[in-house]
Amino acid sequence: MCSIIGCIANSDVSEPIVEGLKKMEYRGYDSVGVATNSDSNILLKKGIGRVNAVNLDLKLDSMPGHVGVGHTRWATHGQVNKINAHPHLCSDNSIAVVHNGIIENYSELRKNLERNGVIFKSETDTEVIPNLLGSYMKETGNLKKTLMKTVSRLSGQYSFISLFEDGSLVAARFHEPLIMGIGEKEYFISSDVLGFIEKTNQVIYLNNEEFVIIDDKGYRIYDFNGNPVEHEIVTISKQNNNVNKNGYRHFTRKEIFEQPSTIPNTVNNPNNNWKKFAEIIQNSSKVYFTGSGTSYNVALVAKYLFPMYTTISPEAIMSSEMAYSKDRLQENSLLIAISQSGESADVLEAAAIAKEKGLKVISVVNSKASSLERVSEASLGLYCGAEIGVAATKSFTSQLSVFYKIIELISKQHIIFDAEKVSNLILETLDSESTIINLAKEMKNSTDVYILGRGIHYPIAKEGALKIKELSYIHAEGFPTGELKHGPLALMDESSYVIAINPEDNTYQNNLSNIQEVKARGGKIIGISNKDHEVYDHWIKIPNVESNILYPIIETIPFQLLAYHMSLEKGEDPDYPRNLAKCVTVK
Ligand code: F6R
């Protein structure tokens, strides 16, 4: 995933473009570039690395020009190097393009353009876009026709913004986000509202298969067939889009420590139509959950949770596996898609497959007006604020809270989800940070971490392993405790770290027996529990809860802290782990 931004104003735009790129860096951060139009010339600067570093070196934010585009890259086609960094120019340097997504038919398009004399400079799929725009501009001399012809040739999923020598800015959306910001005599267009929220909160969400032309006459939006489209300007909340660290060293730590307030924000949010959502679930003959990564782990928790208190027995299907599981989908049933961003390509594809099979699709999403929300019949928002750290933390506990609350409604209050009480439990759990810092120091050089949990704790074991891999680059696996004897036990020796999720519930006694087996082979045991036990080499204390069913939310917190602190101990940047992007918009 990459971030793209364009701006047109009455003053130089490179500074707001660079500021916007800094705010959207979570989307990709291996290289950065800016192009502006100054006196009908396109100026271009780009470099490898994070925005601050490249800017310090190249002074991207001091480039002259009242129109410009900017990009941060997460490489898909072509290595991370300066040539492959965006913006890309057409062969006569009259058009600059920044692009997010993938052009699937780029190699065929590239060959055609090469036959017509175009010389390509990079290995990217993107470079076909400025060259197609350039050739159609020569042919038609008309911006709108050029856009229509260009988009008709591209397949894949993309959004792009192009800067023309005459000072016009154009942008097109095809299955990747694109949002316009309308300011005082200035316009922004970007992949995320975070790119311009500090300048304006008046926005237009472009629909799929639409493009916009912005110039000194204002803006005009069209669908891909060239029909003019009118859009409402929406006012969005600046507070929900706060992207400051508020004194924290990292976004990840800030977001972990925000959880005592984000959970009540989620479940008490009056904008959500909880009743309608619960009714749709209740009235469905069969319920499927889908999601990717951390959001899929929420689906796994929901799979355990629903049958405990309702007559609903859902299935959880990984979004990337939906294409191969579609024969299992029963007609007239319901798919609940879970996603922080609402833009993950696999999740969107899973929703599309389900729709094709005649299922109703509803969703739980954090980012407002995301693609997933738009294709859903009903959607609940997380309202936990922008999540910038690449590792999902507060969105995970908010997603879990949504399903606890829904079950409260469906089960006619058989369980009560008291968000204030859960907040206090999380606050207590956060107190274990100093124990976890010591543990992170001890574990930072370990090569393998095994995480055990039975029943509803198994998805949390998987989530814990995901966080540790993602942030500290240590191999970690989560599996059901009972499966220890079917393979993993062969790997245990004095160098093994085993984290047992072991609250005092119906999984407690069986876990203890399995943990003893690890201990007998010399492995070091870390117990996450409300109760200490002599088998533990280290105990991470979690508070006692009134209802055992709340443990999954509480026991997640130590894993977030451990992964964060191991990353710091190893000298890594927890906000921007290597090879990852916050939202994966490619399949
Ligand atoms: C994990 C993480 C990813 C996401 C996954 C799905 O910490 O951030 O695994 O959970 O890419 O993203 P969304 O929820 O935006 O669909």
Describe this structure in words.
It is a single chain. The protein contains 18 helices and 24 strands. By secondary structure, it is α/β, with parallel strands linked by helices. Helix 4 (128-140) packs across helix 5 (143-153) and helix 15 (433-443) packs across helix 18 (551-569). An eight-stranded antiparallel sheet has the order 3-2-4-1-10-9-11-14, with helices on one face. Strands 5-6-7-8-12-13 form a six-stranded antiparallel sheet. Helix content is 34%, strand content 23%. The longest helix is centred in the C-terminal third of the chain and has 19 residues, at 551-569. The structure holds fructose -6-phosphate.
Topology:
Blueprint: E1 3-8, H1 14-23, E2 31-38, E3 41-48, H2 51-58, E4 67-73, E5 88-89, E6 95-103, H3 106-115, H4 128-140, H5 143-153, E7 156-164, E8 169-174, E9 179-182, E10 187-190, E11 202-205, E12 210-215, E13 218-223, E14 234-235, H6 251-257, H7 259-267, H8 274-282, E15 287-291, H9 293-309, E16 315-318, H10 322-325, E17 334-339, H11 345-356, E18 360-365, H12 371-375, E19 378-381, H13 394-410, H14 419-430, H15 433-443, E20 448-453, H16 458-472, E21 475-480, E22 497-501, H17 508-520, E23 524-529, E24 538-541, H18 551-569
Parallel strand pairs: 15-16, 15-17, 17-18, 18-19, 20-21, 20-22, 22-23, 23-24
Antiparallel strand pairs: 1-4, 1-10, 2-3, 2-4, 5-6, 6-7, 7-8, 8-12, 9-10, 9-11, 11-14, 12-13
This protein binds fructose -6-phosphate.
